[in-house]
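Forum: Protein Structure Q&A
Topic: Joint prediction for protein chains with partners

I've read a bunch of threads here and the consensus seems to be that you should model interacting components together rather than docking separate models afterwards. I'd like to see that in practice. Below is the full input, 705 residues plus whatever partners are listed. Could one of the regulars post the assembled result?
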Amino acid sequence: MSDNSSGSAVAERGLEGADQTVASFDESDVGLVRRLQGFLHRFPTSIPFFVLLLGVLIFSIAAPGKFFAPFNFSLVLQQVTIIAILGVAQTLVILTAGIDLSVGAIMILCSVVMGRTAVAYGVPVEIAFPLGLIAGMACGLVNGLIVTLLRLPPFIVTLGTWSIFGALNTWYSRSETIRQQDVEDHAPFLQWTGTIVKPYDFFSKTLGLDWTFLKGWVLTYGSVVMLVLALVVWYVLNKTAFGRHVYATGDDPDAARLAGISTTKTLIGVYTFAGFICAIAAWVLIGRIGGVSPQAGQTANLDSITAVVIGGTSLFGGRGSIIGTLIGALIVGVFRNGLALSGLELLWQDFAVGVLIIVAVTIDQWIRKLST
Amino acid sequence: MLKKLLLAGAIVALSAVPVLADETIGLITKTETNPFFVKMREGAQAKAKELGITLITAAGKYDGDNDGQVAAIENLIAAGAKGFAIVPSDSKAIVPTIKKARDAGLMVIVLDTPLDPMDAATATFATDNRKAGMLIGQWAKGTLGDKAKDAKIVLLDLATNQPTVDYLRDQGFMAGFGIDVMDPNKIGDETDARICDHEISQGDQEKGRTAMENALQKCPDVNVVYTINEPAAAGAWEALKAVGKDDGSVMIVSVDGGCPGVKNVEAGVIGATSQQYPLKMAAMALEAIHSGKIPEIDPKMGFLDTGAQLVTSKPVDGVTSISVEEGLKLCWG
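Posted by a regular:
Agreed with the consensus. Here's the joint model:
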């Protein structure tokens, strides 16, 4: 006994003067690069934000007098609205480490359901519009059920439903366009998202504020819908239990299950919610083109993924944000608009967007190294 | 009793199976979804019923899907078809497969988009797209009168890779308007000061609007807009409306002649459009394959022109046109 105690005393004595810290990360000789990596890990939207600023700066110089103007900025905002909304839906799915290739097809199908029931069948818009929303949720629910019950990879499932929803769209629409005038006569509510709002007039008339910096801005209610929707989804993701479950499910589904989260319910919820958002995008699409075109938005699913990826949301799930996606959509919009105004051909716009995607994923991978 | 029921059931089931006619003819389009091809298929179906033949239809998955069309041709050869009509997605790459089909004794009629070389097919029935463009160009010039010499023109084209239909319509329009087109098979090498901007619309309503918005930033005083098709025209109109240019200060011309497009001519959205006839093309092709007789083809053209007519409510002297009412009777989609 005594030997033991004296032994431990010797051991303790042997530790005298040694570092008493139990365990910690060595941060004293961290290089600048490593610090940047850590900063980006904590604020994943900072890179897209700087890219956006850089884009604005470049094109202000490249297309003088045309690009840097409130009216042009509002155009870019209008041009990216649909993709940004689909991007919000896509973000939800990608946060769960999934992917939804069917968002564009769901959007077009919903726009046809809204337009066709209201115009061709004369159903009141009070019924036709909710029918479109229900159609969107039903499509999302189908995706969610197949992913969870059959345990198939989301990529495969939505590759299949992309084709299925597309075929339903062709069948139901008979490939016929509904003209702007017909929608206006039967269901003007469907075009409401295309209504122009001038923020300056709004604030000066209703609140009597003379905010001159708002002069020249021309928005549509579609952009307002986009912002409200993004705010709602941001709230859901950051302030509700469901939101935490979404992140947890995407980051590590096994850990999430052990923590008592029903990943099945979370996934079904996410896909259904995404389908609902696609239906909202359908409404905004009708507002933008005036009518209903079953051929519109053929590449919308890929564009939405582009916005999410450039916006810094990880394709591997669990990390990313709605704000990032909005910025991602704006980056694509700014580059396309800026390059077009600078007089470059469309192929160079595609080139630039392609480079942005690869850079974004490279940065994501690099930041990931810190957490593994 | 049970036996009788089963027997009756079997007879009903058997009679429900469509009796395959002796003669099978195929129709292969570029895609399933484009209303132009949807109507073409409907025209063929009606004709097949009338002639009492079996029609097999197929399509590529997307515009440019050559592999899908190759598979469809192979299936038709295997099915022992008498022949088929095809709208080639890739007018060069499909040629060897067409040759294989013709060697197997099938009659091949190419619709809408001629092959390269054109004589690889038994015959070609198509719209003269250059002429279709020429008609709207002449109409625009005639309508503007003296103002045509300082027009500000925006052209909403189809795609970056300039497929045949794209440059034929675009250059046809320019030639009709009196612009020196330089290379007649190339878009973008013109030096005429009246051309303000070329944009890509992908023939889509939403992208058409975006293209017009960008064009307006470059040419705020545009007064003539050429569009590759009527969906692009409808999109351009939305962009013009948003900035208050729907007051008649900007003239839009287009090509296709679909029913929504013709109605847009009636509504004053589109000034004039060149109408094409997909149903007629398909019906004529089926008839030719069925009878084995090809109508006489002008050797100079090399293909049977199924015609394009200008639809407008404001006719111009010297440019043949039909009224909106007539256009609506002939429209498709």
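The interface with chain A takes residues 32-35, 38, 160, 199-200, 203-206, 209-210, 213-214, 217-218, 231, 234-235, 237-238, 241-242, 258, 260, 263-264, 267, 333 of chain B (CB under 8 Å).
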